[in-house]
Amino acid sequence: MTQTRPTSNPILVAVIGSALDGITSEMGETMLRTSRSPIFVEARDFATSIFSADCRLLAQTHYIPVIGGATPFALRAIAEFFGDDVNDGDIFIHNDPFNGGSHLPDITIARPVFWNGELVFWATTKGHNVDVGGGGVVGFNPGARDVLEEGIRIPPVRVVEKGELRRDTWELLLSNVRMRALVESVLNCQIGATAIGERRLKALLEKYGPQTISDATDELLQASARQVRAEIAEIPDGEYSAEALLDNDGIDKDRSYRIALTIRVDGENLTFDFSESDEQAKGFINSTIANTVSSAHLALFGCIDPDIRYNAGAIEPIDVVAPAGSITNPHDPAPVAACTVPTCEAIASAVWVALSQAIPSRAHAGWARWCTPATMGMNPRTGRHFGDLHFLGKGGSGATEGFDGWDHLSPSNTLGGLRAPDPELHELDTPYLLEELEYLPDSAGGGQWRGGLGVRYRWRVLADDIACATYGSGFMPETAPVGLLGGEPGIVQSLTLTRAGADPVEIESNSFYTLNKGDVFEVISSGGGGFGDPHLRPVELVVRDVRDGVVSIDAARTVYGVDIDPDTLEVRQDETRKLRAAG
Amino acid sequence: MANANNKASRRIGIDIGGTFTDLFVVEGNGESRIYKSPTTPHDPSVGLLNGLTKAADSFGESLEDFLGGVSTIVHGTTIATNAVLTRQGARTGFVTTHGFRDLLNMRRGIRERQNDSKYAPPAPLVPRNLIATVRERIDVSGNEVVALHEEDVRAAARQFREQGVEAVAVSYLWSFLDPAHEQRTAEILREELPGVFITISSDVVPQIRAYERHSTTVLNAFVGPKLRNYLANIKQQLADRGFGGTLLIVQSNGGVMSPEIASDSAVNALMSGPAAGPGAALQYARRHGSEDVITVDMGGTSFDVALVRDGESLLTSDSEIGGYRVALPMLDIHTVGAGGGSLVWVDSGGILRVGPQSATANPGPACYGRGGENPTTTDADLLMGYLNPDMFGDGAFTLDVEAARTAVEEKVAKPLGLSVTEAVEGIYRVVNATMAEAVSAVSVKRGVDPREFTMVVAGGAGPIHAVPIAQELGINRIVVPRESSVFCAVGTLLTDLKHLYARTFVSDMDSLDLDRVSELYREMRDEAVETLRSENVEDDAIDLFFSADVRYIGQFTEIEVPVTFNGELTPESIKQLVSDFEAKHEALNGYAMPGEATELINVRLTSLGRTAKPALADHASVGEDPSAARKGTREAIFSGSLIQTDVYDGLALRRDNRILGPAIIEQPTTTVVLIEGYAMTVDSQGHYVIEPAN
Predict the structure, then answer these.
(1) Which residues are CB-contacts of B145 (< 8 A; sequence separation ≥ 6)?
(2) Which of A406, A414, A419, A550 has the highest number of chain B CBs within 10 A, making it the mutation to test binding with B?
(3) What ipTM goes with this model?
């Protein structure tokens, strides 16, 4: 282990580092405690951060990393727009995809923190708002041809000036959404969390003074940079290329889109080059630059030392090339709503496949792509509007060397941070009766380490006129979760709608539907991809999976080469030896 | 010889921990004694009886005479906790609603360490092949959508019989709105599976949130048979040796219960071990005028934090054990991985870190001299001069100073370019800052400002770090109980019988059905009174506290608010409830939204059966001068320099003795480090009170 001695007091560096981590975590707790949005409280779809005055990310708590990695772009957009015109007591809001944003629902709230009249820090929260208006369903509009059809676009805007709410601006924002009261409470909760951040930061400034803290944070960033450089140095120099597809863009259902990536490793530096990717799409799968960078980062940070702090230092050795006009960096005003989900997932998948060529033991096999729809409407039982992203349909994660994937853990843009809602609270909020939510046998890719399981998720609709937008990918063999090093892929996903009194019909993704009373909607989400040759999986684990009913007797034989007697569930040793010997 | 006046008035608190079984014996006249005996994990009753025999010997009595003089034994046990952590519970089957077989093991689909792709989820309490589903369904309004298919229950029973299941948990969707399906299922299972422990969610935790309810019910089944057998054994063993008094068990909520109740609601014993701590801490703090307490308990591998506010231990329904959720209110004890054994390391970026990994018992910290090469908090404490190498762990063995120095030098000082002295002082500071951060996070999460609290310190290593932690947090009073190391055993004698009841009833507050809610309260009240009577509590020793969980419509987090209930709810009591809710929301979250519609989620009842508490005797004052207890000096680091520091014998300190920092106070199992600027006074019962010197 090579180390360079930090120049300032190493003890203070450690103390201040843990304090900053603690502050972002308290900001997160505040959001969880006070929000009225299930997307924050139940699913934890947000990130809290602290930045230096010059917009370097110092500390972050992200349950959903794709939001975390995009936050620095949003803050820079705000800081650049307002320049010196930033006062103590101001609060800024932002979501513009073409100036530092990801997609419209991810709204950033930023609060400058002053000390003795000087700007010292920024405290920010960024999270998926339940409603941004527009023609979509909970922000997802598969028919949108530009960003303006997707909802309200917010450039850097000052909503609070020197402690005073700018009521006209506030009204302008809230007049452009449907669930006004809910959106207002969500924004208040975000603002409240930055107030907690400010309070704690000021206590820290009181104790150590700005200079000591600034020296310490410089050290922290350098330390993280050293750690990431050391990790990159362990990857053999070279170029590693991979592709991942998106099913379609919602406008042209017959063509899929391609993320093409080359990872270049040169000593301690790493470049993600997306130059060969397809041109931008007509529909909502385009990825803004903030989202492209964030997606590549989360895939990489999901493979290296998990103790490394994600901050401005950690990302210093990493470069991202994404040509303007491509699906990874579209021109204004392309539609982008789906970028944080299917496009992020495709980018992550390409990163892992590319890395599997260089450092196979660290790479993830494919995770289940997002496949459940967004729905919204009126619940006659409660008399209230609801918006639902159907997080209950989470699929499985990909296996890694040494470990099976985790069941019901997807999507990869959250790396397992997305919490499934409680089924009963879900029924309390929505006009839906759940009929099934269960692991789906044989949904995961086989392997020496198998993928995590996907689910079958089915509900009956109890009200009329519910807007439904399907979005996502993984509905064709080319986009099923990939297996690595001999591991098998996960299954192809599907959505089935059974209208009252009619036969079941498989429906398309990236489309609009209206759901009515008596309809039954079924989601099949896939398991993750497997890792390594399934014939190398220990026989007793295959038997365990068969006894648990998650691998069929047929799959045990055809995929794993393990012959099991259906009556006794005992292994037939001779036949198994033969099967495995045959390869 | 036993004093005749003490006959059957002796009380014993027992805490069976991982290493030691602690006994705290209080005589009728208020005099108390402490005993420690090694825990015998294979059968903890052996260690317990050894401890009792040791106590009887010291009184010069036979075990039978000694136990004959005992009126009450209160017992905290980690037997349930350990069964879960080691997955050594009953072979458990789980019955749930058809179509929802996996909610338990999905654990709501999260991975706690997101960026770490190299670890496995917690081992399931119930593997999938022991989970059976039954066709039945109640809906959101409590209506039966699918009738109970009894043949499915019988099929499950047959399967469980073949699989050798010892306990069965039943939890259906929405069962708390209509428990009939679960009740009938239990009847059938009892019929089909005689002798098997059966438990249903509508008895254990009749509340909304399916995974949390499933998990809690399954934990009850998983630990039930083991706890039941253990308690039956202890009762028998004690009775065989002449004990005719009352045996009580500490619950996770900080109260106590009878062994009979504990056998059925074993899940309430999951935190039985540490749960008596906060109540004990309150008693120490109360003597000094404080009702707001932070307890810190620092042992070998963990650092536990708990809060008492306005004289009440804070409870949480958010806890988890072994990766599975417990939705019943338990004492809100947060464990932070930074005990004495926490490893100190320099990460690949060159930053000093403490924990979360800790040295295992073997080889342990480097200073144990058993070949451990990695420095720990204990090694730094030793090199600071705070620990007496010859007096560690009751003098069980001598600490190896050179081994500690080598470890710190090689693993910390050299990589950071520091001297060993700079390194150990740095470690001490980082440990304290890490722990202060943890305490701060716990208190902010609960919406309290730690500066107004008294810190009560427990655990062998706690008092070494307590003063700087308190300083970091701005806390101005620290109490170190003389019995710091048997803290929980003391606490068991200070608790009341306590049972918590809850029913989910979701309704807009504006259209609340007062009759129905009153009925739920009456139902809980009757159950509570009946239970306490079965535990031999007189009616005039029963206190009932009614409350409700309220939130603004659309929120996902409820706040518990007291309710006035005298048999019938009135519109006035609801009005008061809403205004109390808003006041509490304001205090906790910094804002309220008066006029916004609210909704009721759960109704709750807490029942207390007051127990008689021992009155502890006061000591006589000997004045401020502590010199009689002064043992000498030793070199220790304070504020960056090595100085000759006064060392006192804690056992020789007496009431009103006052010591100014820097100083070190030693007891056989505890060391108190008093830094400069702080003064310590011995109170009337021999406890140490530390405050800023001016």
Answers:
(1) A433, B137, B138, B139
(2) A406
(3) 0.94
